[in-house]
Design a protein that fits this description.
The protein is mainly beta. 13% of the residues lie in helices and 39% in strands.
């Protein structure tokens, strides 16, 4: 009786072990992109596929493969190796489309960011905004207010481009310092220091200048630094070169030789430091395989034939290089926080484009100050200077794009 029981236990353990091993094998096979199929004789076989992980923000958008609706985001799709046109569509948003070369056992993630098809414009300021200036790190905007109807509120303001700021709330902007008897901040232009901790305010009409520390501005700290301008500028140039040197150290030396070093804004990293937007300084060929490319390297068309005065994006992990456009046509490109999209001004439109030069789309077209196009830190909106109608006072507005 005992032997029979032992044999039964061994058989059960063996069957469970085989089941677990078989299940693990199948899970591994399916995870690598293989699918089970049957031939005409109903004989099962495994065929190698690639996987598209169709993700989007917002979720639940329709996914089309070669114009056929197949699923909704977020989901995975097994496809035989080939080139496919993938479309991701959601009501109220601009459509996303890309040709993707599917390779066997490789997972491709769409990482789609959908943008609103109709601009939602909301005011940030109500009493005007004069000479708005963005900090070097993109975190702050300073501007002056000179309102005839609310003179007590006139002065220099700071706007923080952060998530917890509600555009309509009174606390969205902070008054740094009121106008003084001899200082009207609306007459000044502003320049941030390379570390974004100070602002140089200059009035060329009366040749005055003030160096303001953002977190400690008061009337008692004001003193004219116009005689020290050359020293301040020299110090800031040194700081800028150190920042540029640090940035260049993050990229391959084969790429660094093509990067303009005239401004820290000529080389901009994504928030995760995996991609870099740069302005080219000369013609030449960027070597291939600077690093060993990963199996899932992008199959979008690259541009390694570099031309001077063009903007490119180099993917540091992927060893891919994409042409964004000429400095003559696109103006002040900046990263959105998702590390996939850029925003810039072109033909009096605010445009976006993916880092691989696909999905170029218009986010806003109308009257706005091209020098004031600032991405909000959470990527949901863009700040610009505009008017709702002719003869109205210019104010800062948030263009909600997500």
């Amino acid at each position: 009786m005992s032997n029979h029981s032992n044999k039964k236990s061994i058989l059960t353990i063996s069957m469970v072990t085989l089941f677990v091993l078989g299940g693990t094998f199948l899970i591994t096979i399916f995870a690598r992109g293989y699918k089970l199929s049957f031939n005409l004789k109903n004989t099962p076989s495994f065929s190698s596929t690639g996987i598209i992980s169709a993700t989007s923000k917002p979720k639940g958008a329709s996914v089309y493969v070669n114009d056929k609706l197949v699923t909704a985001t977020d989901d995975t799709i097994n496809l035989s190796p080939d080139e496919y046109t993938i479309k991701i569509v959601e009501d109220g948003y601009l459509p996303w489309e890309k040709k993707i070369q599917v390779k066997k056992e490789i997972v491709y993630q769409t990482n789609t960011n959908l943008f609103r098809s109709v601009s939602d414009l909301k005011p940030i300021t109500l009493t005007g905004a004069i000479n708005p200036t963005l900090s070097q790190d993109g975190d702050f905007v300073v501007y002056a207010v000179a309102s005839a109807s609310a003179a007590k509120d006139n002065g220099l303001y700071l706007l923080q481009l952060v998530d917890n700021v509600v555009p309509f709330s009174k606390g969205s902007s902070k008054l740094l310092i009121s106008n003084q008897s001899n200082t009207d901040w609306s007459k000044y232009t502003f320049t941030f220091s390379p570390d974004s901790k100070q602002v140089l305010a200059q009035n060329k009409a009366n040749s005055t200048a003030y160096l303001l520390t953002i977190d400690s501005i008061n009337a008692q700290s004001l003193y004219d630094v116009s005689l020290k301008l050359s020293l301040i500028e020299k110090d800031w140039q040194t700081q800028t070169q150190e920042i540029i040197k640090t940035k260049l150290s993050k990229i391959p030396k084969q790429l660094a030789e093509f990067v303009s070093t005239s401004s820290a804004q000529d080389i901009l990293f994504t928030s995760d430091d995996k991609k870099v937007l740069y302005l080219s300084n000369k013609d030449g060929n960027l070597l291939k395989n600077i690093i060993t490319p990963p199996p899932a390297q992008s199959t979008q068309t690259q541009n390694r034939d570099i031309k001077a005065n063009n903007y490119y994006v180099y993917d540091i992990e992927d060893d891919t290089n994409f042409l964004i456009g000429s400095k003559d046509t696109i103006y002040q490109p900046k990263w959105l926080n998702n590390s996939y999209n850029l925003v810039f001004v072109e033909d009096q439109k605010i445009q976006t484009i993916e880092y691989d030069a696909t999905n170029k789309q218009t986010l806003f077209a109308g009257k706005f100050d091209k020098n004031t196009v600032y991405p909000w830190l959470d990527g949901t909106r863009i700040v610009t200077l505009t008017v709702p109608y002719n003869d109205a006072k210019e104010n800062l507005y948030a263009i909600y794009i997500k």
